[in-house]
Amino acid sequence: MLNVQLKKRDPFSHKGDYGRASLVAGSKGMMGAALLSARACMRSGVGLLTVHVPECGYSIMQLGIPEAKCQTDGNETHHTDIVIPAGTEVIGVGPGIGQHAETQQALHKLLLGHPDIPMVLDADALNILAENPEWLGNIPAGSIITPHPGEMQRLAIEPQEMAKRYGVVVVLKGHHTRIFVPDGQTVKVYENTEHGNAGMAVGGSGDVLTGIILALLAQHYTAEEAAVLGVWLHALAADIALSDGNSEESLLPSDIISHLSAAFNATRQEAKKQ
Length: 274
Known about the structure:
The protein has helices at residues 31-43, 58-64, 101-113, 124-131, 149-155, 159-166, 205-218, 223-243, 253-258, 260-273, and strands spanning 20-24, 48-53, 69-72, 90-93, 119-121, 144-145, 169-172, 178-183, 186-191. The chain is α/β, with parallel strands linked by helices. It has a single domain, classed as 3-Layer(aba) Sandwich (UDP-N-acetylmuramoyl-L-alanine:D-glutamate ligase). It starts with 19 loop residues before the first strand and ends with a helix. The model has no long low-confidence stretch (mean pLDDT 96).
């Protein structure tokens, strides 16, 4: 499946060269989703990350991921007003945000207010869009959505049609994750059959994938490249975690994050052999 080369880093580069990303995530009782996604994003090479959380998540984020900036909503429990910093190049939204009525309106305002910034939409962002399908046309060009089959079903549209009609890349998560990429009047389809295991079937794995893809998009991979490479690294890191002594029963999303460095290194070494 993989047809994407990892970018080579300039030894004289600085953090601004690797993208400025914003991640809108978390709500009361769901801050773990924000933390997993943010950690995965930082471990996947983003230059600067700002995480937007409700007030209840401030201490959690500052202690759990000190490498990221933290911006609070002003509301204690859920998102009501999402202010994106100037200079943001990509936005991730959805992990753990819930579906409160105020959060739904905040997402709509975000979509309308940033039509030129590519987004990675996952989890509750997709569930909100399923309840408000008229907003699908507001998803910015070059964006990526990452539904599991249930979320795709709630959107009430086939992934090929979603990609073609709205010009977004669709990452349909599953045993063999498929990626649907708009290509003019057609849709290209990739399928991950090389990596991944049943240990990934646990809450939080999708939040990790969102963070990985967000980081790659921030580093100026195209939406197609970010989706394909993100799925590959996510699954490969999970396989390496198993080979490192974990079992499918014990594998956690945090184990995937901790093995991302090995996945990057293995991908780069494999490219050298070709």
